[in-house]
Task: structure prediction
Amino acid sequence: MADLIQLMTNGLALGSVYALAAIGFVIVYSATGVVNFAAGQFVMVGTFAGVATLLNAGLPMPIGYAGALVAMALFGALFYLVVYLPLRASPIVTVIIGTVAIGITLQNAALLTFGSWPFRLPSPFEGMMIELAGAVVSVHALAVVVATAVMIGLLWLLLHRTVIGVAMRAVAQDVKAARLMGLRVQGLLAFSWILGAVMAGVAGLMLGPMWFADVNMGDPIALKAFAATVIGGFGSLPGAIAGGFFVGLAEVLGASYISSAYKDLIAFGVMILFLLVRPQGIFGEPIQDRG
Amino acid sequence: MSITRRTILSLAAGAAVGAATRPAFAAGEPIVVGAAIPTTGPLSLSGKQYFNTLTMAEEDINKAGGVNGRPFKLVVEDAGASNSTAVSAFVKLVQESKPSFVFLSSYSTQNLATAPEVIKAKIPVMYAGGADAVADNAGGWMFRIRPTDSVAARGMAQFVKTLKATKPGIMYIQNDFGQGGATAAAKLLEANGITPVGSEAYGQNDKDFSAQLLRLRQKGADVILTFVYPADGALLLRQIKTLGLKTPVIASSGSFLPASVQLLSPADLENVWGVIDTFVDPSVGARMADFTTRYKAKFGQDGDAYGLAYYDGALILAEGLKKVGPDPQKLRDFIAAQKSWEGIGQIYSFDDKGNGAPGVVVVKAKPGTKTLELVERIRPS
Result:
């Protein structure tokens, strides 16, 4: 029982990070139709924004976290201006390849700026453990789960209870209709990139103390977030959340109860199964129903 | 910031011999040495170290007069993080730069993939991947400057007995290095009458090891042997403490590189022993002190055992170039003939398979600190 609690906590914490990265994926995809293959590198940039503010600048944690998230918002806006806008009239494949290229560029820029040595990003709960039914559980891991739940709640409120959120959903559903209704579509698209970057930033800041800040951390996150998005349903926010938690738990529980050697096979095997049997994922709408 | 007398003497001796057997080079033409090593991507964590030490060796050799008066020129190609990139880097070097000699990476999978091209090119290379399989496919042209994984595994198995553990568990990265090391350790332990209670793998991109560690705990492991890469070695040690495990750990060299140790707290290193290539510490002697001081001054980081192996390798090569010239076959024969070449990190003695570093050392952090101390030297028979 103690082991199961430890595994569930770690699986949920891992799933939380995948869910946040997948949400960043989905927000951008829903609004712009772009599958952002640099999503994993967005999380890496978020972690290194934390390295810059907390370790390099030595700022106190609340200011450091806020500074890192502001930097991520600026990064999202810059990405919209420098990558998305110039490519928006190009075929979608060009835009997707553009995100892959930018992802590689971001990774190598981080390597040149921060070097190849990983960093240990501090946690507000550094070294804190609690005992639950005989299991030693990291407070940081629990905090990651709680913070993710809070972020999801705030995102729901933003999308369903604010004018800007409703406008974003309108743009996501039909850009032309939204424009005809007088919505400032470009501003809303830019906001989608900013929101996606901030979500990735939150994931990166929470991940740093768990995994170390490493310039190569983006790729594994992107792969798992992509699997989470496919399983949950491409374009579906609840799907991204469910998919993220599924992948996190499948990874940890699969390694423990089936085989550590095949744990990735479980997550990606399920993804392939979904692509074959239910390509719209758990929450996604069937393609013919769209529009 | 000075080069030690031993280094100068070895360079000067080589220069004197080389002057008598001057190769047929145009005056001032550099002797090109290639390096197909990872300078970007996940493997650059250690690749950058040997890039640094090879650059340092190039400078030192040229400051000491070069190779018989001619510059020693290092040409680097990025081996990246995949086998195909490593092979392409080697082929590009051979075709475009026509080097007399090439350094390969410290990753067995890349070394194995590149081996057929090395044999085809008939150019001697030095590499630092530990998998025994590399030497079996080396065709006489590949020289290993770090201990083999089986030597490290033998050292670890030997130290399990020192700790009086009877139920070891093994954790390894799922590739040629990890699987090879884990298999070798399991066989050696069984030969000593100790049966491992479990063997758990993780992928190169994995970041959560809780499932594997808890499985080893469930199986009653009283010591955990780890075959890991640097960053995941540090992460693994942290997660062992985060999960509240008190089990002693015997870790492979990756966990004790400076890049890994800087990520850990003294508490993370409690009850952890490292079976590593060599003890890189100024206390070892004047030449080591000179190397560590100059490396830190030049690159702002501590040098590690992997980088040191490449520095030593470059000095062996320089001596060979001076004594026999750049002819690949003669250079190969020179290196193969070295039986007790006194490097800074090891006394290199190349066997018939090209394995040159026969020993490992056991280190441990001093209590409450991250300062490593030498526990024992193991030169498995």
